[in-house]
């Protein structure tokens, strides 16, 4: 099934309404869809490098809007279903403590999920579930998704097809190392 979704997404890169399809894929990927928008972005940018920034902008805006849907899913369904069940089980206080811990590092969680291969949809839903401040979630999502999509666009615009293999296979690792180094740097500055 995943392979069929991947093939369908790749076929849409040549469609006359590819930007609209990219917007839809980026939107739903942020809360439920398993295929990342990069799969559609890459062939679109390779086919029209002069549109790289527009393509990255569409993916960024749509992904953040979809992330807000994921946030809403976590926020509204937790309030109506999850919280009463946890309180009935006597776990309401434990969840409040978890929410405080998550929201204490929420900026980093959203940033990390937004630029690495970690599923962004998990963090969007968790951010709503823990009632992370919406402004923090949105600003961090904009930074993370723009960083991810504009780096991909810049690499493809600059290097073309030869960078495709690198992006598809190794860019997630590079972003993960970058985030680890960034967090490590802040940790060193704070505690040393």
Automatic annotation (TrEMBL):
Membrane spanning stretches? 20-40, 52-78, 134-159, 171-189
Q: Which GO terms describe its cellular component?
A: plasma membrane
| Record protein name field | DedA family protein
Record domain VTT: where: 36-155
Sorted alphabetically, which keywords does the UniProt record give? Answer: Membrane, Transmembrane, Transmembrane helix
């Amino acid at each position: 099934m995943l392979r069929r979704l991947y093939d369908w997404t790749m076929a849409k890169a040549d469609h006359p309404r590819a930007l609209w399809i990219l917007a839809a894929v980026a939107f739903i990927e942020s809360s439920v869809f398993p295929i990342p928008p990069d799969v559609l972005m890459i062939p679109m940018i390779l086919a029209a490098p002069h549109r790289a920034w527009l393509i990255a902008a569409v993916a960024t805006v749509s992904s953040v809007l979809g992330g807000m849907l994921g946030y809403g899913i976590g926020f509204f369904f937790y309030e109506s279903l999850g919280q009463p069940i946890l309180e009935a089980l006597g776990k309401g206080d434990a969840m409040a403590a978890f929410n405080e811990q998550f929201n204490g590092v929420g900026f980093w969680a959203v940033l990390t999920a937004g630029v690495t291969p970690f599923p962004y949809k998990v963090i969007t839903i968790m951010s709503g579930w823990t009632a992370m401040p919406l402004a923090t979630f949105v600003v961090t999502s904009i930074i993370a998704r723009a960083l991810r999509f504009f780096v991909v666009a810049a690499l493809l615009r600059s290097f073309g097809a030869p960078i495709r293999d690198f992006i598809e296979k190794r860019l997630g690792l590079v972003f993960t190392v970058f985030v680890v180094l960034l967090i490590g740097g802040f940790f060193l500055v704070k505690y040393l």
